[in-house]
Design goal:
The complex is a heterodimer of chains A (227) and B (144).
Chain A (H helix, E strand, L loop, with lengths): L4 H27 L14 H4 L5 E3 L6 E7 L4 H19 L4 E7 L8 H13 L3 H10 L1 H4 L6 H10 L4 H10 L3 H14 L6 E4 L2 E2 L6 H16 L1
Parallel strand pairs in A: 2-3
Antiparallel strand pairs in A: 1-3, 2-4, 4-5
Helix pairs in contact in A: 3-10, 4-5, 4-7, 4-8
Chain B lengths: L1 H24 L12 H6 L5 E2 L2 E2 H19 L8 H29 L4 H29 L1
Antiparallel strand pairs in B: 1-2
Helix pairs in contact in B: 1-3, 1-5, 3-4, 4-5
Classes of the chains: A alpha+beta (227), B mainly alpha (144).
Chain lengths: 227, 144
Amino acid sequence: MAATQAGMKRFYALFAVLAVVGLGALGYLLTRPATVSIPANVTVQPSDTSGFAGYVKGASTAPVEITEYADYQCPFCQTFATLQMPTIEERLIKTGRLRWRYRDFPLQQHSFARLAAHSAACADEQGKYWEQHDRIYQGQSEWAAARNAAPFFRRYAQAIGLDMSRYDACMQSGKYAGRIQSDLNSGVQLGVSSTPTLLVNGRLYRGRFDSDAITRLVDSLARQTTR
Amino acid sequence: MIYRMSAVLLSLAGLFISAYLYLYKLGKVGSLACGTGGCETVQWSPWSRVAGIEVSLVGLLGYAGLLVLGLASLQPALAERKRPAELLALLAGIGVLFTLYLTYLELFVIHAICRWCVASGVVILAIFVVSLFDLRRLARMRNS
């Protein structure tokens, strides 16, 4: 039974309306300012890490290594990074007594933690990981409460002199999602459940989080290794 | 004709869903409007590609094929022909089987559900059902 001409006209009108609505929605999504999101719980591929085991600063010959598992959006990590780390760096890292390894441990409740970690990873591509790391922590109070933190990270990236076309492409790709997840997974395996968590020469640290306590500990461990 | 019209409208809906997911994988639309977070888990899993091709692109091409076929089948010369209905049912049937495989992966391998994938699954199943109704309609016409 053939459809009536009026019926066909109604169908094509409905088809056109749906097509316009659909194309309009896609057009809107394509033209709105991009908000990058870094997926959680991705399956880690061997290529995601390829030997990567955190961001390291300090001499490879340093007698003590501290691994920090931290979340860019955690206030305690921010205090530690901005108040204690400069002293630790001056006293211990620059003097060759300590090697510092930073690993991401983005907590589920912190919506921008992965994005921040990814932004720092993109800066690492251009050899400016620690600069971006510091900027992100210093600006935590402004971006943590924002609706979208990406423009803040972009501004920091610009300020430290990154090639912005490379940075934007890196952020859009989300290519370090697996690496961030692998950091988190490694922390979980080691028993990390909060941030920041420190591992001193591979063992979970239960002491105080201030530069004096860490200096005493590093000095004592360094003496043991040199004996 | 109502069945073929429905198949066309459903194919258009499926085309937009697949396009949305594919554009997301290309990094063109920011984050997915999903709610559960399961969409991103599924979309970034190793099973989001089949033989090196994005599953969402496979869906996009499949729905585009169904749309073209459906629109062609509405033309007066083909309106009462059985072949377009058979092709629609065949293509949608393959889509249903592929969707069943993907749903199995979501439930038992990836352990995450993507709502957009579920929506696409409902659409392809609906296209398959209406194409079967169309085949039945044509069979009844031949018998009467």
